[in-house]
């Protein structure tokens, strides 16, 4: 029987509370956190801070996880102990010989930057055609194969033709990847508090990367729902999880239960019950997620988003702890950190992230010759936040124009 939201929260959050209540002293001792976690503050996190926490968590997590992307956790532990810092790295089999500055973000953030540009330019929610326009006008022609996946060059070529933007994703060979789920944070933010709006938008723009109603889009719904829910004023870890289970993957799964998103999340959350730290958690995940031998075997949306939701839960939405946990989990570390820390940042802000990491990511962006945007983290998040305020002002003006009485 499928677990309902209420029963799920009652049965499974008890164990998670015990895990998250632990102080994590042996886990990250070599990387002391000089900033108190937002989750422990009595001061509420403002919406503007939530926007910044989401973007900073995603971008810093991506850059921290990129040097060890695709590694097994045993190799990370062998070479770095517990990784909690930014490192220089090369990518795409070093064909460019470009040594990236510590803090350089990667393909998912470049994908996200184009969504952000489209939103800021429109000053409102976007659709697939708006995003296609941003691709054509703002994608760095050197990006595919250097800072974004090679297949994105093919998608860009199709975007420059008269074909409908909603048809482009039909020709992507990797429809089930995490490409959309790990980059769609801005769709959750521009729909902050509006869960159905976030779902509607991701189903539309997701067709640039996926076929309609594919699992790539369904898993991206989890990310945007979590972020839209986390941005609410009185949100909590429990309310975010509840929003996911109430709104994602409502298809009738009586005959294909094991294919459902909620089923997979339930299975993973049950799997990690009793784990006391991330070392136990990653061993548990290895019993389920260990695919090898095919292109992007680490990077399918179901694996990455499921792990991210679990990390969000066991770290109580603390952005810095979620980031470090994800980076040390192995496999698709940059995408995992982007999703886990992005959702966490939307709930608790960025106060838990060391300030020097924010500065370093901004510096790395400023000298990146191949990026799609050189906005700082603050410029990026404030651009989205101000657009969100503009959107609300338009709605208010419309209501006043139509002279609609309050309910």
Summarize this structure as a short list of keywords or feature phrases:
18 helices, single chain, mainly alpha, disordered N terminus, globular, 407 residues, 55% helix
What does the largest sheet look like? none
Uncertain stretches of 5 or more adjacent residues:
1-41
| Gross geometry | globular
Q: Name the CATH architecture.
A: Orthogonal Bundle
Tally of individual helices: 18
The topology string of helices and strands comes to: HHHHHHHHHHHHHHHHHH
Q: What is the CATH homology-level superfamily? A: ADP-ribosylation/Crystallin J1
Residue share in β-strands: under 5%
Overall tally of structural domains: 1
Task: Give the end-to-end Cα distance, rounded to a whole number of Å.
Answer: 39 Å
Q: Percent of residues in helical segments?
A: 55-70%
Supply Rg: 20 Å
Q: Name the structural class.
A: mainly alpha
Description:
This protein is mainly α. The protein has a single domain, classed as ADP-ribosylglycohydrolase fold (Orthogonal Bundle). The protein contains 18 helices and no strands. Helix 10 runs antiparallel to helix 11. It is globular. The N terminus is likely disordered.
List the helices and strands and how they pair.
Blueprint: H1 5-21, H2 47-65, H3 73-80, H4 107-122, H5 128-138, H6 151-159, H7 165-168, H8 185-190, H9 195-205, H10 215-230, H11 237-247, H12 261-271, H13 278-286, H14 301-314, H15 319-327, H16 333-348, H17 355-366, H18 377-401
Helix pairs in contact: 1-11, 2-15, 2-16, 2-18, 4-5, 9-10, 10-11, 10-16, 12-14, 14-15, 14-16, 15-16
């Amino acid at each position: 029987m499928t677990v309902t939201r209420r029963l799920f929260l009652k049965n499974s959050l008890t164990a998670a509370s015990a895990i998250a209540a632990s102080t994590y002293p042996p886990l990250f001792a070599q990387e002391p956190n000089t900033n108190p976690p937002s989750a422990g503050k009595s001061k509420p996190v403002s919406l503007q801070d939530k926007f910044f926490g989401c973007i900073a968590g995603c971008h810093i997590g991506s850059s921290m996880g990129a040097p060890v992307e695709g590694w097994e956790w045993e190799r990370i532990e062998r070479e770095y102990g517990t990784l909690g810092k930014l490192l220089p790295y090369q990518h795409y089999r070093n064909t460019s010989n470009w040594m990236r500055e510590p803090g350089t973000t990667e393909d998912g953030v470049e994908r996200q930057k184009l969504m952000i540009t489209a939103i800021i330019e429109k000053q409102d929610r976007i659709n697939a055609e708006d995003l296609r326009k941003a691709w054509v006008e703002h994608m760095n022609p050197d990006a595919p194969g250097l800072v974004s996946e090679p297949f994105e060059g093919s998608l860009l070529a199709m975007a420059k033709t008269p074909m409908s933007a909603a048809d482009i994703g039909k020709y992507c060979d990797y429809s089930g990847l995490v490409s959309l789920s790990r980059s769609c944070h801005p769709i959750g933010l521009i729909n902050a508090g509006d869960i159905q709006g976030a779902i509607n938008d991701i189903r539309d723009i997701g067709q640039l990367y996926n076929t309609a109603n594919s699992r790539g889009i369904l898993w991206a719904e989890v990310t945007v729902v979590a972020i839209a829910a986390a941005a609410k004023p009185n949100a909590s870890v429990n309310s975010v999880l509840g929003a996911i289970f109430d709104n994602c993957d409502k298809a009738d799964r009586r005959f294909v239960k094991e294919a459902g998103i909620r089923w997979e999340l339930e299975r993973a959350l049950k799997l990690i019950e009793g784990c006391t730290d991330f070392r136990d958690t990653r061993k548990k995940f290895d019993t389920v997620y260990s695919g090898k031998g095919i292109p992007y075997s680490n990077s399918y949306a179901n694996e990455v988003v499921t792990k991210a939701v679990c990390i969000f839960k066991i770290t109580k939405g603390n952005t810095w702890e979620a980031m470090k946990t994800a980076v040390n989990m192995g496999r698709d570390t940059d995408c995992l950190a982007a999703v886990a820390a992005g959702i966490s940042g939307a709930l608790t802000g960025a106060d838990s992230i060391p300030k020097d990491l924010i500065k370093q990511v901004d510096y790395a962006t400023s000298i990146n010759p191949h990026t799609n945007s050189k906005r700082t983290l603050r410029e990026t998040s404030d651009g989205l936040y101000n657009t969100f305020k503009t959107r609300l002002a338009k709605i208010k003006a419309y209501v006043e124009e139509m002279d609609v009485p309050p309910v």
